[in-house]
């Protein structure tokens, strides 16, 4: 499930809800999983910035997100 509306310069979907602008994946995670704890980011398990599928989104720390991204990219390089 991909966001098809407006997109940020970084390639993330964006929406306006309740007078506030949200990144689309953060809004989807908020609806599906509740509000994020302070300091948490939404991690894309699928590594697709436009994905808003709640099954592909989970909360975590910035560090966890960075480690996941690094591991996924390393795996891709090894399997190409």
Molecular structure report:
The longest helix has 18 residues, at 62-79. Strand 1 and strand 2 form a beta hairpin. The two termini are 26 Å apart. The protein is built from two helices and four strands, in the order ββαββα. The protein is an alpha+beta fold and 80 residues long. The chain has helices spanning 24-33, 62-79; strands at residues 14-17, 20-23, 41-44, 57-60.
Search tags:
globular, 20% strand, 80 residues, alpha+beta, 2 helices, two-stranded antiparallel ribbon
Contiguous helical run count: 2
Q: Bin the helical content.
A: 25-40%
Taking the sheet with the most strands, its summary is: 2 strands, antiparallel
Task: Report Rg.
Answer: 13 Å
Please tally the β strands and state the result. 4
Share of β-strand residues: 15-25%
Which stretches are poorly predicted, pLDDT < 50 over at least 5 residues? none
Q: Give the overall average pLDDT.
A: 91
What structural class should be given to the helix and strand makeup? alpha+beta
Order of helices and strands: EEHEEH
Cross-sheet strand order for the largest sheet: 1-2
* Distance, first to last CA: 26 Å
Give the overall shape, derived from the CA principal axes. globular
